[in-house]
Write a structure and sequence with these properties.
Blueprint lengths: L14 H36 L2 E9 L4 E7 L5 E6 L2 E6 L3 E2 L5 H4 L4 E6 L5 E6 L3 E8 L2 E8 L11 H29 L3 E7 L3 E7 L6 E5 L3 E6 L5 E2 L1 H5 L5 E9 L2 E8 L5 E6 L2 E7 L15 H6 L6 H5 L1 H7 L16 E2 L16 H8 L9 H8 L29 E2 L1 E4 L3 E7 L6 E6 L2 E6 L5 E2 L1 H6 L4 E9 L2 E8 L4 E7 L2 E7 L7 E2 L2 E4 L7 E5 L3 E8 L6 E7 L4 E2 L4 E2 L3 E3 L6 E5 L5 E5 L2 E5 L26 H9 L2 H14 L5 H14 L3 H13 L8 H13 L3 H8 L10 H11 L3 H9 L2 H4 L4 H17 L3 H14 L2 H18 L3 H12 L4 H17 L5 H14 L4 H17 L2 H14 L4 H19 L8 H10 L8 H16 L3 H15 L2 H17 L3 H10 L7 H17 L3 H7 L6 H13 L3 H12 L11 H16 L3 H11 L6 H7 L2
Parallel strand pairs: 1-5, 10-14, 20-25, 30-35
Antiparallel strand pairs: 1-2, 2-9, 3-4, 4-7, 6-7, 8-9, 10-11, 11-18, 12-13, 13-16, 15-16, 17-18, 19-26, 21-22, 22-29, 23-24, 24-27, 26-27, 28-29, 31-32, 32-40, 33-34, 34-38, 36-37, 37-38, 39-40
Length: 1149
């Protein structure tokens, strides 16, 4: 064993120190094995979860009840519950069971049956009240549906099932006996079978133990030896010298006996006889036959592993296993017009030769197929759109086969795949600017690049096993394409630039792409075309979708991401939804596509078949009176407040019938004109509460929606605007845009603001400012800077007003910063930060600090002071979240980790669903792991590290990394004698986190901590509760040493000696000496020390202080035992080594 624990059990004055040193050394030897075993068990669990278990279900009506029988391929834990009239059958594992005929089998009991999509439950709608009786019999589950008034015992299992269970129980008992016998046989050393080759025969000599009898039998093709004791034989030598007339030599343990079978080929002369304690078998062979060499030399350990006793499950499923063991024919993938390379997670060794590619094949795969002449015509048509091209059928160039991975490439692109709890990110780094396109078809995501470099996408399948089912790489004439097939629906987002694209797959879209628009060109019907403006256009690629079989035309583009949000269908083609770039589904063979400047032009000879563009419903005009009259609004603003309010309030209270609602609406308009949004909402809340559903007034709902939005209740506003009564209102889309903006749904808000320009100008100036400012912000959030500049100009004309001046200054500063005008941005932020609007001032100050940090114009200390001031003066919204994010980064850089994690926690409390808060949480988790699993935590005091761990334990990573972190922290706590805290952490790991060998290994570490803390009883309990039979030799030996140490600490010295009887090594010798010493067996203890050091007395090197202490202790032991002979012998050996006066005096006592 590699650790040096044996040197630590010395005769020190404090026994506790010996145990601590022993435990510290021993734990370092255990840590790597725990990590490896934990990974192995995790991978096995994932592999087992992948395939659902097949089963069958039968529902049979009986005389007065119905019986449902579920039969699976293996045992599946099942739980049956009844919730109302629904019977729910839940499974601990994924199953696939046909249920189509169950509802028709017993209509008197079951109405309908459904299976959950994940295969973990079956739900049955019952037609009457029933009692449920569940019985499990092996792989079958019997569910009896009994009437509610059932009297007596429930129905029993079928007789054949009971008999089968009885047979299986008998088989299990037999298998258990065989298993115990085999285990005992394995504990004994294997019996060696010596072999020798003579001129006419081969001799096998079995070295028999005492008391074992042998009998032999010869059949037509087999010679068998039966032994009366279960033995394991080392047949390596016998297999090496087998002659040609011996097919095989095998061994088997059968209960209390064992057998060796020698399979013969043809007739053979076999003689067997006993010679002393040996049993000899001679097998003759012809002179022409030579002993054949064994194909592979097997070690005794390998031979012993071949004896696998049968279990009850193997006996019950022998036939099923024989069928499942048959190899399945390999499925050939049909060619579909293009070659693809599927990324595989592993390559089997047997497939290496088949994967080799000859040089000629590599050369042919690199060759590009000839491009049809028709492909040049779309580009000519794009360069000169006014010239009609002759009809032609552009044939899509078939993609060339994917390059073989064995062929060396000059340069390649390796995909970086990172899977987190929130998303799956794929980063494509390119050395040169590379346009791209991304779109979805069915369950696949297509990514197209303008590059001739090979793309290594193996990391996508390796890291995204739970999301990605397959990745296919395809070579195009002008680029490369990847088809990523998904296991479950995911929303895709494309970010980054031309040198580093990042594709994000998540349950929620990270940031919507900018919208592209298709423009009809109808000036000349014979040249009708569709143009799409797209900055930084790339190449045009044509290829066939192997799933749909249709021809696609894909145009790539540079950043930022732009695409079509909705499908647009034309006569000759369709514009498909895209995440980035343009995807055209061709319906006409003569469709041409070309790039002219920054525009993609789609046309055909004779022009496209287009209709006049109709105005969308959202842009349609209306003659309905606006909700807010400008003159009335001004009158309300200029009127005296109290008389006007009292007049309108009196009118509202006295109105009856049809006049009641308009009176309340007038009062609400007055409150809105005076900026009293909450009061306006309250008035209409009261009025609308008296209206029956379906009889609402559109004006009242619209005013209520406006008041709710301005009062901060935008979700209520959207509910009002979704009422059918508001659909005819001219301002409905405008107020929806405002509500969506307040809810931070920027993309939807921006699109609706673009469609309601005519409605904004009809509003009072005060409302126009609010709406235009919100549209300004929506444009900024979606990075529509030209649109944001237009909104800024609108506010210049309208005037920002005193209430919105500061917030508009912040928006203008953001626009200037986005356009690269940093000085203008800083000036705008400075103007806003000094205003009385604390929200805008805080936002401006945070953005000013961020921009100055980017320009390196402010020190870290000054930035920290400014941000801490903002964090203390403004709280509760996205501004504080951003402030806390900046503070957390500065705190982390300064090593102020508790403040970092506190800032992250505060941000997640405010906006747990925001992108910024989630990113902070991810960064904090990484930092937390670096502290407790890396070098950063070494700077912290152990007590501080423990306190911070308990305060922010929610940042502990899930799985193996978190377990490793906790064990590392426990080691640090042991180093400063915080043994109780360390044992609590390790005990939690054992009780709730670990299984199998990893659990046993951590239990060894926990036992060491308990021994160091002088709690041997708890150390014994930790070892015994985690004991398993199939531990590795080193771990098992360490656990035996620990348990022996604990037993001797509680006074059970004889048991401790029995535990380590068969354990060898210096550690065991040291421990035996300590046990003998504790039990006052002085001579035995001294002899163990003398055995430990052996011939150390012959070395010229002086003794170390530890060795001197042990030697003196041994001498004392011989003296206490009155062993004069032993003491004299020992003194003769080590007396010259005692060079010091004090040592010599102690040695001579």
């Amino acid at each position: 064993m590699s650790c040096k624990a044996g040197l630590l059990f010395k005769a020190a004055r404090k026994p506790g120190a010996r145990v601590r040193l022993f435990a510290d050394r021993l734990c370092h030897g255990l840590r790597p094995v725990a990590v490896a075993l934990t990974v192995a068990f995790t991978s096995l669990a994932h592999a087992a979860y992948a395939d659902p278990i097949r089963g069958e279900a039968t529902l049979t009506p009986q005389s007065n009840y119905a019986r449902l029988v579920l039969q699976f391929e293996e045992d599946v834990p099942t739980e049956v519950t009844v919730a109302g009239s629904i019977l729910v059958i839940q499974f601990r594992k994924q199953v696939t069971v046909p249920i189509d005929l169950l509802s028709e089998a017993a209509p008197a009991y079951v109405g309908s049956v459904r299976r959950d999509p994940d295969g973990t439950a079956i739900r049955m709608a019952l037609t009457q009240k029933l009692r449920v009786n569940v019985m499990t019999a092996g792989e079958r589950v019997f569910i009896d549906l009994l009437p509610e008034k059932w009297v007596g015992l429930p129905p029993a299992l079928p007789a054949e099932v009971v008999k089968e269970l009885s047979d299986r129980a008998i088989a299990a008992e037999r298998a258990l006996r065989i298993q115990k016998t085999a285990d005992e046989a394995r504990k004994r050393p294997p019996v060696r079978v010596r072999a020798s080759v003579q001129p006419t025969f081969v001799r096998f000599v079995f070295e028999m133990p005492d008391g074992v009898s042998v009998s032999s039998s010869l059949a037509a093709d087999r010679f068998s030896l039966s032994f009366t004791s279960p033995l394991v034989f080392d047949l390596a030598d016998a297999k090496i010298v087998m002659p040609a007339n011996i097919r095989s030599i095998n061994q088997k343990i059968d209960g209390e006996t064992s057998r060796v079978d020698i399979s013969l080929i043809g007739e053979a002369d076999v003689h067997a006889f006993r010679e002393d304690k040996n049993y000899v078998v001679d097998v003759a062979f012809d002179q022409g036959q030579k002993p054949k060499p064994a194909a592979k030399l097997s070690t005794p350990a390998e031979k012993a592993s071949e004896i696998v006793p049968p279990t009850s499950e193997q006996i019950a499923k022998e036939m099923a296993e024989a069928k499942s063991a048959e190899p399945k024919p390999a499925e050939s993938k049909p060619a579909e017009g293009m070659a693809s390379q599927s990324q595989q997670p592993e390559a089997r060794p047997a497939d290496v030769k088949s994967a080799e590619v000859k040089p000629a094949e590599v050369k042919s795969s690199d060759e590009k197929p000839p491009v049809a002449a028709a492909d040049a015509k779309p580009q000519a048509a794009a360069a000169k759109p006014d010239v009609a091209a002759p009809p032609a059928t552009p044939a899509a160039a078939p993609p060339s086969p994917a390059k073989a991975p064995e062929a060396p490439a000059a340069a390649g692109v390796t995909v970086d795949a990172r899977l987190t709890s929130d998303d799956f990110r794929l980063t494509f780094p390119f050395p040169n600017p590379t346009p791209a396109a991304v779109f979805r078809r069915s369950d696949s995501i297509w990514v197209v690049f303008d590059t001739d470099q090979p793309i290594d996408a193996s990391a996508i399948k390796r890291e995204g096993t739970w999301i990605v089912s397959d990745v296919t790489a395809t070579d195009l004439p002008k680029g490369r394409a990847l088809r990523i097939r998904l296991n479950r629906p995911q929303l895709a987002t494309m970010i980054g630039d031309e040198r580093g694209w990042t594709l994000i797959l998540a349950d929620k879209a990270q940031s919507p792409p900018q919208q592209l628009a298709a423009v009809r060109n109808l000036t000349d019907p014979s040249r009708a075309s569709v143009s799409i403006s797209l900055l930084k256009p790339g190449q045009i690629h044509r290829f066939n979708d192997p799933d749909a079989g249709d021809l696609l035309l894909v145009m790539t583009a540079g950043s930022p991401a732009r695409g079509f949000m909705k499908r647009q269908d034309f006569v000759e083609f369709s514009l498909l939804e895209s995440i980035h770039g343009v995807v055209v589904q061709q319906k006409s063979d003569d469709l041409t596509a070309g790039i002219s400047s920054d525009t993609l032009l789609l046309s055909r000879p004779g022009g496209l078949t287009l209709s006049t563009a109709m105005t969308s419903p959202e842009r349609a005009t209306s003659v309905i009176r606006p909700v807010f009259d400008i003159a009335e609004w001004r009158a309300y603003q200029n009127a005296e407040f109290i008389p006007t309010r009292d007049k309108l309030m009196t009118a509202a209270s006295l109105a009856n019938g049809a006049a009641r609602m308009p009176a309340h609406v007038d009062l609400a308009r007055f409150y809105l004109a005076r900026g009293m949004y909450v009061e306006a909402k309250g008035i209409l809340d009261l009025a609308l509460a008296e209206v029956k559903p379906g009889e609402e007034d559109s004006s009242a709902l619209t005013v209520h929606a406006v008041a709710s939005t301005l009062a901060g209740r935008s979700e209520l506003a959207l509910a009002d605007l979704g009422n059918p009564a508001v659909a005819v209102n001219i301002d409905s889309q405008l107020w929806k845009a405002l509500a969506l903006g307040r809810l931070r749904k920027w993309a939807d808000a921006r699109e609706k603001f673009k469609n309601v320009e005519f409605a904004i100008t009809a509003l009072p100036v005060d409302l126009q400012r609010i709406v235009v400012a919100e549209a300004f912000r929506a444009s900024l959030e979606v990075r529509d800077y030209p649109g944001a500049a237009g909104r800024s100009n609108d506010l210049e004309v309208l005037g920002a007003g005193s209430e919105l001046a500061a917030s508009v200054a912040v928006l203008r500063g953001r626009l200037a910063e986005a356009l690269g005008r940093d000085q203008d941005a800083l000036a705008a932020y400075a103007a806003a930060s000094g205003s009385a609007d604390r929200q805008a001032a805080s936002d401006a100050k945070v953005r000013e600090v961020a921009l100055r940090q980017k320009r390196e114009e402010i020190s870290e200390e000054d930035a920290l002071r400014e941000l801490e001031t903002v964090a203390a003066t403004w709280r509760g919204d996205s501004i504080e979240v951003w402030t806390q994010a900046m503070l957390s980064r500065i705190y982390a850089a300064k090593g102020r980790y508790p403040e970092t994690f506190a800032a992250v926690r505060r941000a997640n409390q405010l906006e747990p669903n925001s992108e910024s808060a989630r990113k902070m949480q991810d960064d904090a988790s990484v930092l937390f792991e670096q502290i407790y699993n890396g070098a950063k935590g070494d700077e912290l005091a152990p007590v501080e590290a423990l306190a911070m761990f308990y305060e922010f334990r929610d940042l502990t990573p899930i799985g193996r990394r978190g377990d490793e972190m906790i064990r590392h922290l426990a080691d640090r706590l042991v180093g400063v004698d915080l043994l109780d805290q360390a044992s609590e952490l390790l005990q939690y790991q054992i009780d709730h986190r670990l299984e199998g060998s990893a659990r046993a290994q951590v239990a060894s570490r926990l036992a060491m901590v308990y021994l160091m803390n002088r709690k041997p009883e708890r150390a014994i309990a930790a070892l015994r509760t985690t004991r398993i039979a199939d531990l590795a030799g080193e771990i098992r030996q360490q656990r035996l040493l620990l348990e022996a140490r604990a037993q001797t600490d509680i006074g059970r010295h004889d048991l401790a000696l029995d535990i380590i009887t068969n354990v060898g090594g210096r550690e065991a010798i040291r421990l035996r000496s300590d046990i003998y010493w504790a039990s006052r067996r002085w001579r035995e203890s001294a002899e163990q020390i003398e055995l430990l050091y052996g011939d150390r007395w012959r070395d010229f090197q002086p003794l170390s202080p530890t060795e001197k202490s042990d030697v003196i202790r041994a001498a004392i032991g011989y003296a206490l035992a009155d062993d004069a002979v032993g003491l004299a012998r020992f003194r003769d050996k080590y007396n010259p080594k005692m060079d010091g006066e004090a040592d010599r005096a102690a040695f001579d006592l």
